[in-house]
Design goal:
By secondary structure, the protein is of the alpha/beta class. The protein contains 13 helices and eleven strands. The chain is elongated. It starts with a helix and ends in a 5-residue tail after the last helix.
């Protein structure tokens, strides 16, 4: 049975490769081409025409382009044959054998013209290719979806929920559970040392923000004296971070045992419980305080558009050695924009090495 599946798979691959190779060769010879009409502004059409000329194997024959009347009058487009203006769509469809219509410009810029064009193409049974990028968004990536049987375009500024995100969530909980169990002896010993050397609870609890500003309780082993929060305002003038974050070069609020716990990153272990609860992930931007987010610039708020993590790109790029919050935020956004399971794996691997040599820990 296994041999049959392997042979069948190989035959399928060979067949697909042969068909693809044959079609490309036929198209290069001008056989089996589809006639395409491109509609848009000169600037939006120019790069598409260039790509078509460089990719003959796509099997598309450019019949011509339609431009706004003003651009035709300016005579600034020589990259392809101009066969009419936007208002000439009906005459052009009747005059030329067109298979596909590609619209390259933002529809909102010429809404009435585009509605007129799409109406005629639809009426005559032409296949229309619309740009998913309907608006000039700089970060959000457009995608097609359906909501209550209504076709919609979705603009995402973060990773799309997919099988990779699902695997990330499952792995988060599996590894968090394992690490919670394995770290119990370390937690027990640390708890005894904390209790013996300073007054106050073993576990420090603090309100932080998770995905899109939801509030949750973050857990850490207490590394500071019990009056640490009261002294924060007094020590704010010694803050070494430029921006809405707080960090001291030498924090007098940290206990002797706390310094060791922080150096070895042991104080972060209770956050595996936060991961189990779903408040956090193993990898992601660090969860901020609500009062810090209140001071964020607009672009910095995108840090909370992804579930926060115990470690992240910032932690493997210098940790507390980074004293400019803008740089911190840029690294977090770089992580969000380029997220993948492979990136998470690399960050986890780097984190393990950094924790072992305590680089950048405070």
């Amino acid at each position: 049975m296994g041999g049959f599946i392997v042979i069948e798979s190989l035959l399928l691959i060979i067949k697909e490769s042969f068909v693809t190779y044959s079609l490309r060769n036929l198209r290069k010879k001008g056989t089996g081409l589809r006639n395409i009409l491109i509609i848009g502004t000169a600037d939006s059409i120019r790069p598409v025409v260039k790509q078509l000329k460089e990719n003959i194997s796509l099997g598309l024959n450019l019949v011509g382009v339609l431009l706004p009347k003003q651009e035709i009058q300016e005579k600034k487009f020589e990259d392809a044959k101009i066969i009419g203006s936007l208002s000439d769509i009906e005459e052009v469809l009747h005059k030329y054998p067109i298979d596909n219509i590609l619209i390259t410009t933002y529809i909102g810029s010429y809404y009435e013209d585009m509605a007129h064009i799409i109406g005629h193409c639809e009426e005559e049974g032409k296949e229309i290719w619309l740009p998913a990028k309907l608006f000039n968004t700089k970060i959000s990536k457009p995608d097609a979806d359906e909501f209550l049987e209504i076709p919609i375009f979705v603009f995402r500024a973060g990773p799309k929920f997919s099988w990779q995100i699902l695997i990330k969530m499952i792995l988060d909980r599996i590894f968090a559970f394992i690490l919670c169990v394995l770290s119990l002896p370390i937690i027990f010993i640390s708890a005894i040392l904390i209790k013996l050397t300073s007054s106050g609870p073993v576990i420090f609890k603090q309100k932080r923000l998770t995905l899109h500003g939801r509030i949750f309780t973050l857990y850490k082993l207490r590394t500071m004296y019990s009056n640490a929060e009261e002294l924060k305002d007094e020590l704010s003038k010694m803050n070494i971070v430029k921006g809405p974050a707080f960090k001291l070069a030498e924090d007098p609020r940290i206990t002797p045992v706390g310094k060791v716990l922080r150096k070895l990153s042991i104080d972060e272990i209770p956050q595996f419980w936060n991961v189990l609860k779903g408040d956090m992930s193993l990898v992601g931007p660090r969860p901020p305080l609500p009062e810090e987010v209140a001071m964020y610039k607009g672009w910095q708020r995108r840090r909370i558009s992804m579930r926060p993590g115990i470690t992240g790109l910032v932690q493997v790029s210098g940790r507390s050695l980074i004293t400019n919050f803008d740089k911190w935020a840029e690294l977090d956004l770089k992580y969000i924009d380029n997220w993948s399971l492979w990136l998470d794996f690399k960050i986890m691997l780097k984190t393990a090495f950094i924790v072992l040599n305590t680089k950048g820990a405070k």
